[in-house]
Amino acid sequence: MPAAFKNNKLIAQTSSGGRAPDVGASYVYPSANGGRYTRQTMRWGNFPGFRYEETYEHDFFLYNYDRATYLDPRNIGYPNCLPAATYWSTTWPASSRPYLDTRFGQNSKCEVDELAYTVGAAFANQLFNGITYETYIRTANGNANSDRFRLSGQIGYRSPVTNCPRDWTWCSFGKYSVVLVPAWSVNVPNTRSWVK
């Protein structure tokens, strides 16, 4: 599996627990509002909670090495490298400062081989045990009718810890990533439940 990068920094990948959620599901389908969507649910069990400076990103990636992707593969402008989402939302509280994450990758380019459709929480300490949370990203149709995905939970930190001068995605740096659904093992459109 290729290494994950965030702002040119290698992120360790692990299949062990960490602070990633314990249970959830991935839904990837055509949208009744046009286009296609990815909806992710996640719930944390009994863990001590995130530290004040920690961030969390629920990283959903589509396979694009063949340049054939189920969701819209386009980016919105370099250097922002944001996915071309027509709509995104989350049930995470506003106090978690949610953001649509960038695809800015290694070598200071927008990532194109593994396309992230990710919502992050800049203040992960506002996410709590026992609540089923959801993230949702809708895009135009991609250029393929099927695809494969992987899912991981990235635990990171904020720098600066307060008063990010830009969007919070640019102040979130990954420490490690926990595998929730192994790379390219599930086809979409599909529903896939998972347990850590």
What is the count of distinct domains?
Answer: 1
Oligomeric nature of the chains: single chain
Contiguous low-pLDDT stretches (5 residues minimum) are 1-5
Number of helices: 0
Q: What is the chain-wise order of helices and strands?
A: EEEEEEEEEEEEEEE
Give the strand content.
over 45%
Q: N- to C-terminal separation? A: 18 Å
What is the gyration radius calculated from CA atoms?
15 Å
Number of DSSP strand runs = 15
SS class: mainly beta
Question: Mean pLDDT, nearest integer?
Answer: 89
Helix percent band: under 10%
Global outline? globular
Main beta sheet:
8 strands, mixed
Please describe what this structure looks like.
With 196 residues, the protein is mostly beta strands. It has one domain. The chain is 0% helix and 49% strand. The protein is built from no helices and 15 strands. The protein has strands spanning 4-6, 9-14, 23-30, 36-43, 54-63, 75-76, 82-83, 85-90, 98-100, 114-116, 119-121, 133-139, 147-158, 172-188, 190-195. Strands 1, 2, 5, 9, 10, 11, 13 and 14 form an eight-stranded mixed sheet that branches. It is globular and about 40 Å long. The relative contact order is 0.30. The model is unreliable at 1-5 (pLDDT under 50).
